[in-house]
Description:
Blueprint: H1 2-12, H2 16-34, H3 54-66, E1 72-79, H4 86-101, E2 107-109, H5 118-122, E3 131-138, H6 144-162, E4 178-182, H7 183-218, H8 221-247, H9 255-284, H10 290-317, H11 325-356, H12 369-378, H13 393-400, H14 402-419, E5 425-426, H15 438-449, E6 458-463, H16 471-476, E7 481-484, E8 488-489, E9 496-503, H17 510-529, E10 539-542, H18 544-578, H19 581-609, E11 615-616, H20 619-646, H21 651-678, H22 686-718, H23 727-737
Parallel strand pairs: 5-11
Antiparallel strand pairs: 1-3, 1-4, 2-3, 6-9, 6-10, 7-9, 8-9
Helix pairs in contact: 1-2, 1-10, 2-8, 2-11, 6-7, 7-8, 7-9, 7-15, 7-21, 8-9, 8-11, 9-10, 9-11, 9-21, 10-11, 10-18, 10-20, 13-21, 13-22, 14-19, 14-22, 17-18, 18-19, 18-20, 19-20, 19-22, 20-21, 20-22, 21-22
Amino acid sequence: MREHRGYGKGITGPVGRWVTLAAWIVAAMLLSMLLPQVGKHETNNAPNLSDSRPSVQAEAVAEREFGNGADIPALIVWHKPGGLTDEDLAVIRELAGKWSDAPVPYQTSIPPFHRMPAAALKAELSEDGSTLVTPVFFDKNADTDQLKTGVTALKSQAGALLNADPFEADTEKEGTLSARVTGPVGIQIDATGLFENADFALLMGTVLLVLVLLLLIYRSPILALIPLVGVGFAYGVISPLLGWMAREGWITVDSQGISIMTVLLFGAGTDYCLFLISRFRQLLKHEPDKSKALRTALTDASGAVAMSGITVVIALLTLLLAEYGAYKRFAAPFSIAILIMSVASLTLVPALLSIIGRASFWPFVPRTQHMREARAAKRGKQPPRPEAPPRYRTGSLVVKRPGWIAVASIVCLAMLAGVSSQIKFTYDILSSFPSSMESREGYALIGSQFSEGELAPVKVIVDTGGRDTQLGAELSALPYVSRVSEPAAGQRDPHIVAYDVELAVNPYSLEALGHIPDLREAAGKALAAAGDAQAADHVWISGQTAEQYDTKRTGERDTRLILPVVICLIALLLLVYLRSITAMVYLVGTVILSYFSALGLGWLVIHYLFGADAIQGAIPLYSFVFLVALGEDYNIFMISSIWRKRKEMPLREAIREGVGETGGVIASAGLILAGTFAVLATLPIQVLVQFGVITAIGVLLDTFLVRPFLVPAITALLGDWSFWPGRRHLAEKAKAKG
Length: 738
C-alpha cells in the first residue's frame, strides 16, 4: 500500500504531474519525428500459410515447372449487352499486342490474343457473344501498391485507345462496352482499397462515438476529452514504435490489423481511464483534499487496471502460437498497443486529473457536503440537503434473490449459446466485398456468362514418372468439374504434368474447398492405376481454392490450440491475483458461456437481420481472444471491489455495495467498448462487420447480464467459499473489524 501511495504521489504531486505530462509530450513528439508511422510500413500481401502447407508446396512446384503458373492473373472481363462486335474484338486484340510488346509495370505475360485469328478469338466468347475474359499475369511477389500501378496503367491505355473509360461504364447499358478487373489481382487491390478508405472514417467515427457517449454519461466536456487525450498520446507513441519495428522487419502489420487496433485502443483505453475516473469521482464527494482523493483512487484502481491490461496483453500474445499469418501478425502490435495504453491510463491520465482537479467534472463538480454548504452560504442560498445514500438497487436485488437470478441468467445465456452450434462458416473472400465493387462485378459477369470456376482455376499437378495416365479424362468426368485444360509438361521435368481445372461452383465457396481432397484422391488413383506405388507423394494442387482449403485447415488447428491456452493463462492470472480457486473457476466459466452466447446471438443478428448466409471462418477465434480477455477486465474490476469491501463488512453487504459502486462505471465502459466495436459494422467489409457485431454483442452481454447479475449471484450463493482457499483469512479480518 505504501508503495502504491508513493507511486501515486510521484505521478500526481505538484512537480510529478507536470513531469509526467512533459514526458509523454516529449516522447510522442520525438518518436513521431524520428520514427516512421505504422501506416508507412504496411505489408498487405504477407503470406498467411507456412511452407509446410500442401498448397504452398504446390505453388513452388508450379513456379519451378510452369513459369506463368506461379504468377497471379488479373482477369479483364469485357462485356457488351447485345454482343461484342468485330470492332470491339479488334480493340481488345490491339491492346493485347500493346501489352505483349510493352508490358505495364510488374506484368509478366499475357496470352497471345493479338495473334489469334478472329474465328479463334470468337470461340472464346460467352454463349451469347456478350462477354470475353482476357487474363494478364503479374509478378506474384509484387505488393498491392505495385499491382495497382500496373492495373491503373492497363486501364489508362485501354481508355486512351477507346476514347472512353470502359472500366467506369455501366455493365447493363445496351450497346456500351464495359470492362471490369477481377481475379486474384483485382480482389487483392479491392480488398486493400477498402481498408485504406476505411481507416480515416473508422478513426473519426470511433473518436466521435466515444466523445458523444462520454458527454452523455458524464455531462462534462472536460472529462470527455481526458480519456481521448490519453488515447491520443498513447497512439502518438504506439504508431511510430510499431512503424519502426515493421521497418526493421521485427513485426508485420497490415491494413486490417491497424483498423482493428484503432478500435481496440479507443475502446479498451477509455475503459481503463474510466475505472480510475469513476473512483476519483466517488471519493471527491467525501474527501475535501483532491490530491488525497486522487492518490486513493489511483491506489484502489491501479491494481485492477494493471491486471486488466496484463490479461489482455497475455491473451493477445497467445496469437503468436498461431500458424496462420493473419492471426500471428495481430499479436505483437495489439499487445504493445494495450501495454502502452495501460501505462498511459496509470500515469498520464492521473497527471491530467491532478492538474485540472475537480474542474475535470465541470459543470457537475463533485463536492463534499461541507464544501456544498460553504458554497451555498457564500452565495446567500439555503444549505443543500445531504445527498441521499445510494440505494444500490441492482446489488440489493442480487443478494435478495441470488438463486433465481443465477438460474435465469444461465438459462438465458445457455439458450443463446446453443444457437452457436447452428452457425455456418464461409471462406469466400468475395462475400466480404460490396456488390458494387469492381472485382465482384467482374466475378458476377463470369459466373453468369461462363463457369464460376474460371475466376480461379485449380491447378492439379502430377509427376507421371513417364507413365501414361488417363488423369485428364478422369478429372473431366467428375460432377463438380466444369472444364479441364490440355496437359502442360514441366519445363525442367517433362514427366511433371499440370491440368487447369475449372470447378462448376464458386471456387471460394465451402463446397469448392471440400472438393480439394477429392481432386487429390482422383489424381492419386489415376497415378496408382498407372503403376505408381507412391502416388500420394506425386500429386500437388495449387490455386486460390487449394490455398483457401489450407487456410481453413490452418485456422481450425490454431483455434484448437489457442482457445485452451488463453483459458489456462487467464485462469492462472486470476488465481494469482485473487488467490481463490473457486472464484477463478466461476469467473472463467461465465466468460466462456458469455462468449458462446455472443456467437449465438451474433449469428441471429447477422443471419436474420443482415441477411448473411454464413460468417467468415476467422471470426470465432478473433472474437474469442477479444471477448475473453476484455470480459475479464470487468470481472477483475468488480470482484476487486467486492474483495476490498469484504474485509470491512459481511459478504452480502460487500456484494450489494460492490455491484452498486462498480455498476455505473462498468455500464459506461461497456457501452463505450461495445460502441467502438459496433463502428466496424458501418464499414463495407463483411468480415469487419461480423467481427464488430459479435464482439459488441458479447461486450453488452458481459456488461448488462454477466457482470451485474450472474457473477455476483454466484458469489452470494457460494458465500465465503468464493474466497477459497483464502476465505478464512478474509473472514477473520472482517470479524476482527466487525
